[in-house]
Design brief:
Number of strands: 2
Radius of gyration: 14 Å
Strand content: 5-15%
Structural class: mainly alpha
Largest sheet: 2 strands, antiparallel
Distance between the termini: 20 Å
Order of helices and strands: HHHEE
């Protein structure tokens, strides 16, 4: 994933931070897309915080 992001940024002359900001702004303005992204991320086993410094898989 890191290589994909790096490639997109390099090809478009933008920083990773700018890309992330634009993605969040776009998807936060579209509740349906935002919900779908979060649902897929959870399905794929993204990390969540347990209230401590320990991270676990869903």
């Amino acid at each position: 994933m890191s290589d994909r992001i790096k490639s997109v940024c390099r090809e478009n002359g933008i920083s990773r931070e700018v890309l992330r900001q634009a993605l969040f702004q776009h998807y936060e303005s579209d509740p349906g897309a935002w919900e779908a992204i979060l649902k897929e991320a959870k399905r794929k086993g993204e990390y969540f915080c347990t209230g401590t410094t320990e991270l676990r898989y869903l």
